[in-house]
Amino acid sequence: MERNTSFSLLSGNHSHTNSNCSRDNVLKTVVFPVLYSFLFLVGLSLNSVAAWVFFRIPSKSHFIIYLKNIVVADIIMTFTFPFKILSDSNMASTGLRVFVCRVSSVLFYLTMYISILFFGLISIDRCRKTLKPFRGTNAARLTRRKILSGAIWAFLLVLCLPNVILTSKTPTSPYFKCSDLKTQAGLYWHEVVNHVCQVIFWGNLVTVIICYTLITKELYRSYSRTKSQSAGGTICRAPSRATTRKPGQANRKMSANVFLVLAVFFVSFVPFHFARVPYTMSQTRGVLFDCKLKLFFFQLKESTLFLSSLNSLLDPLIYFFLCKSFRTTLFKTLQLPPGTCAWLLRRESDTDTGITPVRDSSAST
Length: 365
Known about the structure:
Its main location: membrane. This protein is mostly helical. The chain is built from 11 helices and no strands.
């Protein structure tokens, strides 16, 4: 079956092809291992600090609960990088390459889709906070979010576990593909998992787009109200230069904070899933693609996969800029004064979200 040659989303395939279309090029065996080595060292450091800080913070908001889950996913993903480095650079033994197929790559893609799901939930939470900023939370809502988080982990673990169990064949050649290790049932389950993962990504992509469209509309309305109020105030008296600049500065900072989540999602996950479409076609419909084109799509897929891995390095930006509790705890732990990095933050938010929607004065009293 030709579909057996496709790359697994939850089982990986870092392998050789035939000698006429080799993937063992400098990009795969040298450049990416170096990049992943850097990513491992920096990502492990940043996420270790993030975990150390976050688990000193009580889970008092939906946002913090979601961020804590992303921290765990990022740490697990980061620990899979050394195995990919060894495998891609052809420094791994046959046993280690088998481990990459059965376990390491499964964990990598598992954590990727966990992050995608929590990014969708964060987008919904940001939308709710922007549209209904004065709606609080309570213990019951927090408990439901914790149960939902546990259910997400349990669902994806159950989904990917057969990829570990059913990748049980013994390699008959040192140049094996991960699909060569799968049983017949494993190949069918792999296909099911691929479809589920596609639903997860595209469903969350639609969710993110809808949420940030609503957020953008609300921010524009808030900006228009603030601008009209500022213009109306000049009828009675001429405001100072500092006074006239504050509303615009606050809106610009707030908008930058809101769209940081959107930027990280699109940089990390969208390119890979778009590149994966022609790559999968090149693997399953080989007669339509020559060797050079197959190699190009393979390199494109690997490049965008690195962007997905880069998510483990970008997420700490979200923690720092959007979560005041994280910044406060970090500064206290490092014994830094509260004004540290004020040139980056410019203004302190009043919530753990870093988002303070601009409302007209009548609505906030």
